[in-house]
Amino acid sequence: MIARTAPSVHTTSWQQLLRDAIRTPDELFHALGLEGHPMAEQISAHQEFPVVVPAPYLARIERGNPEDPLLLQVLPDVAEMQLTEGYNSDPLSERDANPLPGLIHKYHNRVLLTLASHCAINCRYCFRRHFPYKENAPGRQQWLDVLEYIRSRPEIDEVIYSGGEPLAVNDQRLAWLSQQLSGIPHLKRLRIHTRMPIAIPQRVNQELRQWISASRLQVVMVIHCNHPNELDTDTVNACKLLQRDGVTLLNQSVLLRGINDNVSTLIELSERLFAAGISPYYLHLLDKVQGAAHFDIERHQAIALIDEMRTRCSGYLVPALAQENAGMKSKTVLG
Fold it and tell me: What is this structure's pTM?
């Protein structure tokens, strides 16, 4: 393997950082000085769901540590190839709530738009790792159909950008779509679900800030951060820029075995999020997607963790422990 020269994350565009992301397990091990670690079994899982790790995220992983909690979120594991009863390829039955390409309508007042089929980082526990993105890649005319669907349903007051990674889409396209949504009178909020400020914080550039600021809609950004080590100076600075533009920042995490399933880590995560101006919002039980069962923990263990958090830190630092169940009209808050 020919080693690549690592790009400078401070001088490289977010597009180039995304293009240059590590995309094979052997590259990942080489970059982290783990060439001697057993990895042959990981290859089959990589072929099922490819590795994607950009340089800014890679820089936060401890070299030489195969148990690093950030590494474990992106490293293929042979356990992903084991079929587990009770887990499936569509754990939230989203295909039943997919009336138009690119649109998911599960809840009464809000719809979700799948703007991109790819992510800036491939998390091994992703509940959409089997999602039919090829069937959900609208062209311009199909997006006009989606807009008409929203326009004709006055009960919809919120649109959620999702994916894949919605901020992997170029700003010109995002600006056009956001402008169209701003023209629908009954919409109040635009919510962006993204891992980009964690994966590539350089994505929060002037072009992004311009179309966000131009929207008449209240913009909410839900960042996906699972571990305090994912928050560095670049991420915090990117979030502070968004706050200056009036964006409400929330965080949602997934409770993951061996990564954040202890009270000390969860409290530190909430403390660091809040210090950065990001409110802890949801702590999700794992969606039971096939290939991720090894990350799951028991419901009673999760409730015990949240109960202990309540006794050890301020209430505003305790996220809502939530589970999403297929066919339900809302998330279920536990504990």
Answer: 0.92
CATH homologous superfamily for the domain 94-333: Aldolase class I (3.20.20.70)
For 285, the token pair is: 């039980």
CA end-to-end span of the chain, whole Å?
Answer: 50
Phi, psi of 270 (to 5 degrees): -65, -40
In the chain, the DSSP E strands lie at 103-107, 110-114, 158-162, 189-194, 218-224, 248-254, 279-284, 320-323, 332-333
Which tokens go with 180? Answer: 């169209």
- Give the start-to-end residue ranges of the domains of the chain: 14-81, 94-333
| d(C-alpha 300, C-alpha 294), whole Å | 17
Largest CA distance in the chain: 59
2 phi/psi in degrees, rounded to 5: -90, 120
Rg (CA), the chain: 19
pLDDT per residue as tens digits for the range 11-30 = 689 999 999 999 998 899 89
Helix/strand/coil for 139 = coil
Q: What does the pLDDT look like over 241-258, one tens digit per residue?
A: 999 999 999 999 999 999
